[in-house]
Sequence to fold (90 residues):
Amino acid sequence: MIRERWFGATGRKVPAIALEGTIDLEPALVVDDVSDLAAIHEAHEAGRPVVVRASSAAEIHAALSLGAVSCALVRDESLLSLNLAEMTYG
Fold:
């Protein structure tokens, strides 16, 4: 089952984890990590989707732990099959 999340205030849903280049990111704020929490929060408050690039399970977990993040973008297809519930709840 593919978990989906709201894409900001666009009314669309997107996969929680997506392969880079497979979804339309317009008008999202796309960041390389979750270090700029102020920008992420500002975009979220404005209804703008937030997408975070991730290259490991830990980075995906960190990104999706933030309610403001719509999607984690990955380049490695094997990361698409992560069990987010298991990562979160054990």
